[in-house]
């Protein structure tokens, strides 16, 4: 075979490679990334430490535990950046006690339930299982309940339970910071641990109804376990 035959074979091979690459590119362009790349389900416990609106004399404000459960949808732009929208049901609140006389101690435990919407850009360093996120949240108060008691020196307890929705605004707004660690179990199914720090940026009190049961801003740290459902 002469050099002309060799050149002809090389040119035909190059034409085949180029056309094949163009075909693959056109197929890729025909099928863009879906709007929802991942679906996640999560649930966990929360440590609540709200900022006090004020302090009564002899008042002791205590932290308490809550919970969070929710679902998330995310769009993955590339291996580093994704945008997640989360919908969660969160139990927030606080507990406090105050001695109103040498004889009586008033104790109150407030549970505020919120439907929370969060929009969180998330960043994953290359070749890492850790994802960082920060973004805003907006929450709707769905339920508020106050459980209280009067304790006297002779250990007599007078308890009461009431709806406390009128003491708090119907919404909350703040900032959420997330730290997520992903891992695989059960035939490649992806699970994750996530720590969530939520800090309210607005007062949740109704100003004209400030009582011992008032707080200023919601604050919480949650630890969640979740599962990813890839599309």
Secondary-structure map with pairings?
Elements (H helix, E strand, L loop, with lengths): L2 H28 L7 E11 L10 E4 L1 E13 L4 E19 L5 E19 L6 E22 L5 E7 L7 E15 L3 E12 L18 E12 L1
Antiparallel strand pairs: 1-3, 1-10, 2-4, 3-4, 4-5, 5-6, 6-7, 6-8, 8-9, 9-10
Written description of the protein model:
The structure is a single chain. This protein is mainly beta and 231 residues long. The chain has 2 domains: 1-32; 33-230, Porin (Beta Barrel). 12% of the residues lie in helices and 58% in strands. The protein has one helix at residues 3-30, and strands at 38-48, 59-62, 64-76, 81-99, 105-123, 130-151, 157-163, 171-185, 189-200, 219-230. It has an 8-stranded antiparallel β-barrel. The two termini are 53 Å apart.
Give the overall silhouette: elongated
> The CATH topology of the largest domain, please?
Porin
Q: Please, how many helices? A: 1
User: Which parts are unreliable, with pLDDT below 50 for 5 consecutive residues or more?
Assistant: 6-10, 13-18, 20-30
Tell me the series of helices and strands, N- to C-terminal.
HEEEEEEEEEE
CATH architecture of the largest domain: Beta Barrel
* Average pLDDT taken over every residue: 81
What topology, given as strand order, has the largest sheet?
1-3-4-5-6-8-9-10
Helix content estimate: 10-25%
Top CATH class of the largest domain = Mainly Beta
Distance between the termini: 53 Å
Rg on CA atoms, Å: 28 Å
Q: What would you call the structural class? A: mainly beta
How many strand units?
A: 10
Portion of residues in beta strands equals over 45%
Largest sheet: 8 strands, antiparallel, barrel
Number of separate structural domains: 2
């Amino acid at each position: 075979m002469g050099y002309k035959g060799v050149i002809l074979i090389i040119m035909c091979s190059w034409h085949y490679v180029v056309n094949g690459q163009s075909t693959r590119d056109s197929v890729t362009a025909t099928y863009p990334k879906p709007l929802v790349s991942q679906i996640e389900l999560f649930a966990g416990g929360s440590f609540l430490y709200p900022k006090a609106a004020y302090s009564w004399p002899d008042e002791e404000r205590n932290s308490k535990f809550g919970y969070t459960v929710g679902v998330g949808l995310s769009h993955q732009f590339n291996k580093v950046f994704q945008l997640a929208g989360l919908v969660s049901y969160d139990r927030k609140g606080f507990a406090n006690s105050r001695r109103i006389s040498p004889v009586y101690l008033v104790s109150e435990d407030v549970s505020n339930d919120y439907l929370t919407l969060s929009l969180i850009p998330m960043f994953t360093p290359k070749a890492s299982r850790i994802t960082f996120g920060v973004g805003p949240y907006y929450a709707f108060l769905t339920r508020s309940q106050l459980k209280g008691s009067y304790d006297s020196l002779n250990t007599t307890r007078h308890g009461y339970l009431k709806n406390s929705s009128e003491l708090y605004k119907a919404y909350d707004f703040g900032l959420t910071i997330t730290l997520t660690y992903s891992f695989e179990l059960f035939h490649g199914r992806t699970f994750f641990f996530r720590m969530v720090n939520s800090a309210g940026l607005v007062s949740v009190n109704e100003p004209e109804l400030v009582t011992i049961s008032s707080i200023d801003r919601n604050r919480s740290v949650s630890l969640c376990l979740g599962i990813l459902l890839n599309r």
